[in-house]
Amino acid sequence: KSKITRSIFGSQFVATISMTLVLFLMGIVCLLLSTANDLSRYVKENLTLSLVLNEDIENSEILKLQKNLDIQTFVKSTQYITKEKAIESLTEELGENPVDFLGYNPLLASIEVKLYNNYANNDSIESVKAFMKRYPQIKEINYQKDLIQAVNDNANKISIVLLVFAAIMLFISFALINNTIRLSIHSNRFLINTMKLVGANNGFIRRPYVLNNVICGIIASILAIGLITLLLYYIQSDLQNILSINMHQPILFTFGVILILGIFLSLIGATIAI
Fold first, then answer.
1. Does 1 score more than 70 pLDDT?
2. DSSP the chain
3. Considering only Cβ atoms within 10 Å of each terminal Cβ, which end of the chain, N or C, has fewer?
4. In 3D, which of 220, 197, 198, 228 has the Cα closest to residue 267?
């Protein structure tokens, strides 16, 4: 049994390194997939609907309208933009004040509304617009329809590409483990036959292959987690703003997935091969 164990460990060294790289790539895919969802949610929830208010509306009516909007289930937050603040923002964009050559402030006060992630798509926004048009204080509703559509389309495309890549990595992992175990069994075929002749049952012969393969899977998982940790450490300065968007949960989730995949793939792959 010890001779088989030593032989398996020797033949699986390269496979462990290869599996580490596969799990590392799987971890990157998982991290990107989790982060892509978080970034997509972050972008969607920062897209705004601009509710342009009527000219003669009083402050008390504006506050009442804003409170009514805040209690709606689809509204994440609202911000009241006065005429003065609106012209200041436009002046910063244009580099000059339109009031200087128009003689008056052409902008109206507005309320900037941010929706929750589930409502940040064009179909839902049309329903939201229909609801908001019931308020007589609102003159018009503006939003970037093309930008919202682009965000949703790109988020779906990225998710599909990452899932396909993850499926390819899983297939490579199974193939790698299967081939390694089969080569190991082939190299020990005479020893295995000898053990069977002296009465060793199949479970006794099979056990070291499965056990050692699972151990190699755990080692590969730990190495892959270490590589991802180093990668995140070296790029955190360049991605400081992105990593600040609640990255701890996706990172811990990714590490858990890597460890589970390392054990599961090793166990299933070795069992099938043997």
1. no
2. -HHHHHHHHHHHHHHHHHHHHHHHHHHHHHHHHHHHHHHHHHHHTT-EEEEEEPTT--HHHHHHHHHHHHTSTTEEEEEEE-HHHHHHHHHHHHSS-HHHHHSS-----EEEEEE-GGG-SHHHHHHHHHHHTT-TTEEEEE--HHHHHHHHHHHHHHHHHHHHHHHHHHHHHHHHHHHHHHHHHHHTHHHHHHHHHTT--HHHHHHHHHHHHHHHHHHHHHHHHHHHHHHHHHHTTTTHHHHTTT-HHHHHHHHHHHHHHHHHHHHHHHHHH-
3. N
4. 220
Does residue 274 have a pLDDT over 60? yes
Structure tokens at 51: 């509710």
Q: Are 193 and 250 in contact (CB under 8 A)?
A: no
Query: Can you state the angle between helices 145-187 and 122-132, rounded to 10 degrees?
Result: 150
Separation between Cα atoms, residue 158 and residue 40, nearest integer Å: 10
pLDDT at residue 165, as a whole number: 80
Amino acid in the structure at residue 88: E
How many Å apart are CA 230 and CA 224, to the nearest integer?
10
Separation of alpha carbons 219 and 18, rounded Å = 12
